[in-house]
Amino acid sequence: MAEFGENIKRAREEKGFTQQTLANKLYVSRQAVSRWENGSRYPDLLTAKSLAAALDTNLDKLLSNDDMQNYPEVNPVIEYPLYKRVQTALFSAAFVTNLVQLLWYFFFNLTENRALQTDYEAALQIYFAISSGLITVVLLFGSVKSIKDTINPRAAAEIAVMLIGVDILDILVEQYLNWLNNSLVSVWSITLNAVIDASFIIFVLLFFIGKKPRRPITVYICAGLVIIRISGAYISNLISVSGTPGLTKYLITSSLRLFALLLIPILIIYMAATLYRKRQLTRSCLDGENYPQKVK
Questions:
Q1: What is the predicted pLDDT for the residue at 190?
Q2: Topology adopted by domain 2-75
Q3: Any alpha helices (H) in the chain, and if so which ranges?
């Protein structure tokens, strides 16, 4: 990466350009040019082509094969404006929905019929509020990084692992509380859910920051299984409360929770799909294909 930055700086100085002059020619900020030269970021491929043209040089002279291979791993997962807006919208929607859900629990569920609650019911609701709070904080962190355009593959992996990790913690804590209440659920069900989440974490790490390039199919499968599990639990509980006085409350609270939870695997799928496409684009450039004029 240092070599790429040095190449840009050398070519810029040979042309007699300041960083600001070069930035103006490329319609980027001076800080962007500075980051390219100090090696902390790469330009996206289309900007790199314009950069080479502005410096009257060949892109191959600026970017070595090592630079091209490192490019998808250093830059943000999503670089094109429309894709960035979708990512930020997903993070923001997930954050807002989880925040509303958290506030609902604090102001209604944690106080409703509190005197009639058993210790087990109170513990479940308190832990659920803590869990929702953790997820909300992680999503806020992701939203801020998405707005600042700093979600590279490693950051994406960290966010995904934290979100999935909270789900594993939910499974273990709920099972422990059920054990204390002598109301254990199926061991096979708990084990299966924990295995799915653990596999999800492993495949996310292998795809986003693994040394060997991989297809995201295993990430998609695990995310799909999580979506099926969440939807299945919602439908099962909906059937159990149908025709009861609690149906309206369930539709309000659980539908909100369903939407909040579904956004998380959808967000992970979106980041994985976009990063995979960027890696494929980079690989096509390394193989000598023409640099694309437009990414659809």
A1: 82
A2: 434 Repressor (Amino-terminal Domain) (1.10.260)
A3: 2-15, 19-26, 30-38, 45-54, 59-62, 65-74, 81-104, 119-148, 153-180, 187-209, 217-241, 247-286
